[in-house]
Amino acid sequence: MAVNFLIMMVAYMLMRWLFYYMNINTFRDLTFDEVMTISLGGLRFDLSALCYINVLCIVLQFIPLKARHSVKYQRIVRIIFLVVNGLGIAVNMADIVYFEFGGRRTTATIFSEFGGESNLGTIALNSITGYWQVWLAGIALIVAMVFLYYNPVKKNRDDFPRNKIYYTTHSLVFVLALWVAIAGMRGGFGLKMHPLRQDSADIYCTKPINAAIVLNTPFTIITTAHKHDYKDPHFFETSELDGIFNPIKNATPPGGEMRKLNVVVFLMESFSMEYMGFYNKDKDGGAFRGYTPFLDSLLSVSYSFRYSFANGIRSVDCMPASFAGIPRYIDPYCYFIYSNNKLQGLPQMLRDEGYTTAFFHGAPNNTLGFRGFTNAIGFESYYGMDEYPGKDDFDGTWAIFDEPYLQYFASMTSSIAKEDEPFFLTVFTASSHEPFAIPEQHKSKFTRGEIPMHRSISYADYSIKRYFDKVKNEPWFNNTIFVFTADHCGVSHREDYNNEMGRFLIPIFFYTPGGQLPARCDSTRLMQQTDITPSLLALLNYQRPFFSFGKNVFDNSPEFVNYVFNDRNGSSMYYLDDLMIEYRGNKLYGIFDYKNDFSLKHNLLARKRQFKQVPFMERQLRAIIEQYITRMKGNNLTALPQD
Fold it and tell me: Nearest-CA neighbor of 578 among 622, 620, 525, 530?
């Protein structure tokens, strides 16, 4: 099996290079070193695909049966191996041709995309005649595989050791082989490591489009076979869709010079609005204090929003929403079959304007696929646990404790500022993640709270205060916009937050020590994570078109629509000013006066006709869903010209 796997690994690498050569116009800016890095990274995905494809052969070759040692048995295994790997070569070669049209590696959606085609024969014939060189190369690889196949049994064996020794030894080898095969499928042996996904390929490249070279088609088909595709709801004609809701922003650039202020974004792990005293002054008869004294004080001198929402429910939903304008819809974008679509990320947009961009997270570097996604959206540097100098500060489970890590981030911020301004830096805190660990020396200090989460939130708040204590006198400080948001809500303790609105309410606010924004809590404008990029770019007076499902929350034009969209497993909510509607199964399920009914106890659906804005809200919600689905399928998530 090792010899035959090695032969197939060579074949997959040759197909990778042929894929690159035949589509070189798409990858024309790649250097030789980048191609080599991509190729080496691709080995993990090739091994994973081969372990998936050959799982039956692995079982047949290692199962503790004496029949394995017969010529007839091995002939059957050889046929299975050649058939399944021949199919693997065929789909890989087909994607060399198809990639030009789809712009990404083929996934399991190919079966639904072409399931209704009546002229597949004609399509296949045109493919063979138009790209005969590719198919000739594929045939050559299959022929080579047939002739190079290594057969371990040349004649029947009958000299076996005693059954006890044979079955014990071969059972252990069988278990070991399965363990190695599973590790190969996952992409490594680490128990805490997330299994390889399509977006894992972004680790080895700086542009999402280049991930297609890292990947191979058997891998993308197999790993998406269990995932459903979006069904186009066909709410509107294509020609009218952009007129209802258009995710292209700055279609007409605003004019003037860009303001190149520094930007620092705090992504705070699991910070629900319900933990913060600033947002809950009326709770418990005015007695509620919250668990974030420093952030409460910072909010009093910041531009904040009474109603600010997450666009997802998991950590992996946060960055696509905040930095690429893509909310979660049913499934996390990073884990979905379209996760290698071309994006227009905020870090890359600012990088193109001369910004230094870097992402900081105190967890292991491959945690949740963050490193790959940060590459995809344009962060030029990634600082994870591998780069952190003091491993003794590890909490033992999840990440570096927040206090020492944010002190490290403060030092790095000042170092980067000395080298190159302007900069765009993001730090993802970690200590308010389960198991909510607090350093031993602080356990007696942070004792308030009804649940363990509250104490870890207080510790995280203290850690952020220590960061600002360290940087507040730095020369770059007043020229910086600080943006605060949570990745998603944490564990809920208050009953009034335990509903479809409360599960999305998070702090989002802008702190500008240089006075670029006034200190106020806006109770009229609705804020969401997808609004962060448009609003930031508006503050910087960015001069180019970009893509986002969010809005510029500071827009004062007559066309401004004060909305929020979020979704929880297919239950979509659309907020407009003082009203919220809920959709399930593409049907109106609820209407709520959320500002006067914070707990959403009173569904006003029966009084639908009283709310004149509901038809507009339904139309907007449907347009957002259809734009999301059609643009996701069409790999059209940027305002950049299509290749």
Answer: 525
How far apart, in whole angstroms, are the C-alpha atoms of residue 22 and residue 293? 59
Please report the domains of the chain, with CATH numbers, ordered by start residue.
Answer: 2-223 (no CATH), 257-516+529-554 (3.40.720.10)
Residue 105 CA to residue 315 CA, distance in Å, equals: 26
Residue 114 bridge partners (DSSP): none
Structure tokens that stand for 140 in this block: 């050559």
Q: How many CB atoms within 10 Å of residue 7?
A: 16
Q: What is the pLDDT of residues 83-115, one digit of tens each?
A: 999 999 999 998 888 776 556 687 765 654 444
**Six token digits for residue 322:** 């905040």
For the record, the structure tokens of 244 come out as 């209802």
Spatial contact of 310 and 529, defined as CB atoms under 8 Å apart = yes
Question: CB atoms < 10 A from the CB of 191, how many?
Answer: 6
619 is written with which tokens? 């139309």
**Peptide bond between residue 195 and the one before it cis (omega within 30 degrees of 0):** no
For residue 39, give the 3-state DSSP assignment.
helix
pLDDT one-digit tens code per residue, 253-304:
888 999 999 999 999 999 999 999 999 998 888 889 899 999 999 999 999 9
Q: Which residue has the tokens 């295994």?
A: 77
Q: In what order do the strands lie in the sheet with 262-268?
A: 381-383, 356-361, 423-428, 262-268, 480-486, 508-511, 303-305, 520-522
